[in-house]
Every structure is written in structure tokens, then in C-alpha cells.
Amino acid sequence: MESEGDAPEPRGLSRALKVTATCLAAVIAAAAIAAAVVWKVSESKAHGRAEADCSQAVKAMTASSASFRKTVSQQEDVMAVTEAQVKTAGTVKSLHEAVKDPDVASVSCRSGMTTQELRDSAEQARKNEALYLAGSKRVESAAAAVTASRDAKTLDEAKKALSSRKDEASKLLADSDGKVADPATRDALGEEIGKAGRLSSGKPADYRKESDALGRAMDAVKASMQAKADADKAAAEAKADDPSQGGSRGYATQPRRQGYGRGRVYRNPSLPPRRQNVNPPRKQAPVQNNGGDDSWRDWMNNQKPIGNHGCNPDGSCGIG
């Protein structure tokens, strides 16, 4: 006998449940397939975008790298500056450090890479680009610092050179007082000294220009001093050659021997000529005709001095 609780289910209901379950399973499967298709399509698009983004990032990185190297090549002249040529030696060292390639990681974009790998590569490429751009700015800044330091030292040297020349010019101006043929040259030198003292400029060329002007003014004063010295020397020589001016060069420069009587007199060429009675004339005794001897004495007394003895007809001789 069957109990009331064991009554069989209706056949129609059981079949309905099976159909519902089957339909539900089919719907779920279809949804899963659709989701997979959608995901696949979406993933494909994402991969494509990631690949394109990576390629663009690498392209920008390559451009920044080329710009960095161009910036470095443009500083070749500045790179040749040595520490001895700059006011601050550290600027040269900083420039040599700045021109080194930035420390960047390698980057590639391949179609076989996953979307995430492509995204990571794109991110690294952007970092590299930033490093190259920063490197270019660093090179430009370091080069400007070297140039400024070099110009500062050049300016200091130009100022120092002008100051030194100005001191030389001032000394020459003082030493040349009354020693120039043309006083206008000293006036011009004084004006240039004043200009040098008033000069204030940030350009080394201005100081070099003024230094050159001072040099020309100094040369003019030196030439004028030489002209006066030559003229003074010529005047002194002319005076020495003119007896009327007290000169002695018109007389014999070698001692000249004069003879008189039984002795000899030497003339001193440094003394003006003067007359001296060395041997005053003696009174001659009356001539007597004693034959041949008296005639000989008469002939001797009537003879005049022969040659350039420096003696006078009356028998007196000058010394000097």
C-alpha cells in the first residue's frame, strides 16, 4: 500500500523543470560565449592602443635624445675652455658632467608583447624623454655658466691691464715734464689717463680699446722726449764747436809742441789761447863790423821764426 506522503509527482511538472533548466543552461552558455567574444574584442583594441601609445612614446624619446646630442655638439667651443681660463674652475667640471648621456633604460615596442608590457614600455619611454629634456637644459645652463665665468675673468684681466698701463702712463707724464719737444703730447696723454680712470663697462673690449689708446699716447710722448733729447744733444755739440760760445772743440785736440829758445812749451787744448811773455825780448847790442863774425850775428838777428811756433815777431811766445 502507498502512503499519502509517497504520492508520485505529476509528469508535466517534471518535464517543465527539465526544460527550464536546459534553457537556463543554454542562456548561461551563450552569455559566457558572448562575454568571451566581447572581452577578446576589447582586449584586442586595448592591445592595439597600448602598442600605438608605446610607439608614440618611443618616437618622442628618440626625438629628445637627438635634441640632447645636438645641444651637446653646439657647445664644442665652450667645451674647449679650460679651468685656467675661467674665474670659477668648478663650472668647467660641471659642464663636462652635464654632457654625459643620461642614464636611461632600453625600451622596445613589439607586437608580440602583452598589453601590459606595452604599457610599461611606453611609461619607461616617457621617463627617458624627460631625462633627455632635462639633460639638454642642464647642458645649456652649464655652458652658460662656463661662458659667464670665462667672460668675468677676461673682464678682470682687461681691467687689471688697463690699470697697470694707466700707472705707467701717470709715471711717464710726471717724468716727461719739461723734457718733450711738443707739450701737446703730454696734454693728450693726460686726457687719456683721465678717460681710463672714468671708464666703467662690462665689456672687456672697451678696456682693451682704452689701453691701446693710452699706449699710443705714451708712444707719442716718448717720441717727443727723444726728439728733444736729440735736439739738445745737437745744440750742445754745436756750442762745443763754436769758439765764440766758449767751446774748445775748434782747437787742436792733440797736444801741440812749440819750441822757443832752448826749452819747449806744450799747449793745452782745453784752455783758451792766451798770450804769455815767456822770453821777453832782449835789448840787442849795437852791431859792430868785426869782420866775418859780426856779419854772421847780424844775419842771425834778422831771421824770423820758421814754422808754426806760436811766437810773435818781437820774440815773445804764447803758451796755451
Would you kindly provide a written description of the structure presented here, covering whatever features stand out?
Helix content is 63%, strand content 3%. Among the domains are: 20-150, no CATH class; 176-240. The longest helix is centred in the first third of the chain and has 63 residues, at 11-73. With 320 residues, the chain is mainly α. It has seven helices and two strands, in the order H-H-H-H-H-H-E-E-H. A two-stranded antiparallel sheet has the order 1-2. It is rod-shaped and about 210 Å long.
Topology diagram in text:
Layout: H1 11-73, H2 76-79, H3 90-98, H4 115-175, H5 183-198, H6 204-241, E1 256-260, E2 263-267, H7 292-301
Antiparallel strand pairs: 1-2
Helix pairs in contact: 1-4, 3-4, 4-5, 4-6, 5-6
Estimated share of beta-strand residues = under 5%
Alpha-carbon distance between the two ends: 197 Å
Category from helices, strands and their pairing: mainly alpha
Radius of gyration: 61 Å
- Major sheet attributes: 2 strands, antiparallel
String of helices and strands: HHHHHHEEH
Q: Which stretches of 5+ consecutive residues score pLDDT under 50?
A: 251-266, 274-278, 287-291
Strand order of the largest sheet: 1-2
Beta strand count: 2
Offer a few descriptive terms.
mainly alpha, two-stranded antiparallel sheet, membrane, transmembrane, 63% helix, rod-shaped, 320 residues, 3% strand, Colicin transporter, 2 strands, transmembrane helix
